[in-house]
Amino acid sequence: PLMVSDQVNDPRLLPAHREAWRRLGFRAYLGVPVKVGARVVGVLSIQTRQVGGFSPEDLTAATAFASQAAVALENSRLLQETRRAYEELAQTQGQLTQAQKMEAVGQLAGGIAHDFNNLLTVILGRTQLLLRSLKPGDPLRQGIELIEKTGDRAADLTRQLLAFSRRQVLEARVVDLNALVDEFGTLLRRVLGDDITLETSTAE
After folding, report:
1. Is 164 exposed, middle or buried, given 0-12, 13-18 or 19+ CB atoms closer than 10 A?
2. Residues 59 and 44: beta-carbon distance below 8 Å
3. Cα–Cα–Cα angle for 59, 64, 68, nearest 5°?
4. pLDDT, mean of each 10-residue run, the chain (204 residues)
5. Which of 140, 106, 159, 148 is nearest to 124 (CA)?
């Protein structure tokens, strides 16, 4: 604590403050640090016009008040930190719930794609057997080849769903980005509907 009995004439006082305190009639100053542990978080400043300044009892009372103020400030800080931690926890729980929903969607898509892939295996296998049994000029051949081509496209979509659900082991390979963009464009145009126009611009 800092106790100054004649603050107007104290050499440590700034001239501007000295003039203001003289005009207001303050005689003595008492400053008590507000401490949380070893950390000073503020200063309790008290001035008086009373002749004789502050007594030891005044210093004791001011020190006790500063201690109570430190407790109140620390409680306020802890309350704010608790509220902030609770808000962050609530946000994290929301993100976790969303992630769990996405994981459930992925598992559902993977299960459907896996079963659909089994059906496609039978369809494509039968078409290949039929194509082998038909002569090159057979009129049924064109229809069966269309079934095979459509089944291959469905199998590609199934692989994409399996990759989305992380149930397929992915291997890095070189791809033609133009072909990939065109393929996704064809897929998206069927999904977007007639009221949306999708245009793709690929590199040469």
Report:
1. middle
2. no
3. 145
4. 86 85 87 90 89 88 91 89 90 88 80 84 90 87 88 83 65 84 81 85 86
5. 148
